Every structure is written in C-alpha cells, then in structure tokens.
Amino acid sequence: MKLNYYSHKNKMLVAVDCIIFGFDGSQLNVLLIKRGFEPERGKWSLMGGFVHKDETAEAAAARVLKILTGLSDVYMEQLHAFTDINRDPIERTISLVFSSLIDINQYKEQLSDDYEAHWFPINEMPQLIFDHQKMVEMAKQKLRYKAAFHPIVFELLPEKFTLPQLQILYEGIYNQLMDKRNFSRKILSTGLLVKQKDKEKASSKRGAFYFKLDKRKYQAKLNAFLNFIPNPDNLN
C-alpha cells in the first residue's frame, strides 16, 4: 500500500548551495566559482550540487564545498529552502542554502583553482546565475541580525585584531560607514575587548594595538554591543 502511494507522487531534485563569507582584514568578501556545466556554464555561481540519496543535506554541502573549492572542516548553517517552481530551467529543483563565516587567512592554502574559486568584495559581486543573488541577499540580512545579538562577527577575525579591522568588518556587514571615534569609544566602553601589548604596524607607522574578545564577558553582557550596531530593519 505504501509503495503504491509513493509511486504516484511527483519527484523532484534536491540541491545544496553554499554561501561562504570571509574577511581578509580589509573587507568583507563572498566566495564564488565559475559554473562548470550547462545551463549558464562559465558564469559566476555559488558552490552548488545535488544531494545524493545516501547522504544528508549537511554532508552534501560539505562534499560540494570540498570538491568545488578545496575547503574542508568549515562549519555551515542551513539558512533557507528556495522552492520557486521555475528557479532551475532544466528540472524542478529545491535548493537548501547553507552559509558560513571564515577568516580568509586561515584557509588560503586550502583554496583550489579547479573551478576558479574567487573571493569578491560583498558590494562588488558579478551577476550570479538563477536565484543565487537572492540567496546572498538573504544571507546578508541574516548575518546583520546575528551580528547584532551574537559574537559571530569574531569568527571572521583572527584571534587578535585591531579596532580599525573590527570597524571595517562591521561597516561591510551593515553597508554603512561608522564614525571612527564614536565606534572606538563605544566598543571600548563595553569592557568586552582585552587590549594586547603588541601592535599591527603594516597599515601605519604608529601602528594599532591588537585586541582579543573576552568571550565569557560577552555572553554575560550581550546587550552592551547593541549601543553601536545599526538596526538591521533600517538598512537596505
């Protein structure tokens, strides 16, 4: 009975698409590849592929990312299911979108050139295939919300970072310039950053002191960051 019931139902493909945000110390980026097959062969795309019948969506996302970019051991979170009927011109396909935040400098040696994987500044992306632009926009919006309530922004940074680097990262996420003095004053007033003795001197002669996030204090004083972070609902 059950087999007969299932046999009369419509079947469709399930795919995964991976959005990888990365910070290189100077700007927020997104990782793209050149699509290797038709339709839209040779055009810029997110890292995508189909879910095999013997694997979970999470396993498929990790496999696809490894094959197309060389990246492995990257934590990814499922964001949304894109189910528009005509989103793929060849076959009815549901896409499960995954997203990740990484410090680019930690993964430089892993990145493969097989599919021309390339980092693009978040505001300088080329045109993407299908509905991939919508996927990135949704991921950006969710990143803005999460950055306001959780320390996920620091996953994009090395363990030690400067205040200018932190400000550039927030400006990239929220697509909004922030006053340097106000940013430094407000974020230091939270008491959540631990100043280090050494400086980053590549950017200027005077250099900028490194800081570390006190993660235990962050969890206890979560609302302290909300004083300087823009409201995501008011951003484009």
Describe the protein.
It is a single chain. The protein is built from 6 helices and 10 strands, in the order H-E-E-E-E-H-E-E-E-H-E-H-H-E-E-H. It has 236 residues and is of the alpha+beta class. It has 2 domains: 2-148, Nucleoside Triphosphate Pyrophosphohydrolase; 159-234, Arc Repressor Mutant, subunit A (Orthogonal Bundle). Strands 1, 2, 3, 4, 5, 6 and 7 form a 7-stranded mixed sheet that branches. Strands 8-10-9 form a 3-stranded antiparallel sheet. The longest helix is centred in the middle third of the chain and has 18 residues, at 132-149. The model has no long low-confidence stretch (mean pLDDT 88).
Features:
alpha+beta, Arc Repressor Mutant, subunit A, 236 residues, 10 strands, Nucleoside Triphosphate Pyrophosphohydrolase, 2 domains, 6 helices
Indicate the CATH architecture of the largest domain.
Answer: Alpha-Beta Complex
Subunit arrangement of the protein: single chain
Order of helices and strands: HEEEEHEEEHEHHEEH
Instruction: Enumerate how many helices there are, as a single number.
Output: 6
Q: How do the strands and helices of this protein lay out in sequence?
A:
Elements: H1 2-7, E1 13-23, E2 28-34, E3 44-45, E4 47-50, H2 57-69, E5 77-82, E6 93-103, E7 118-121, H3 132-149, E8 161-162, H4 163-174, H5 180-189, E9 193-200, E10 208-213, H6 215-220
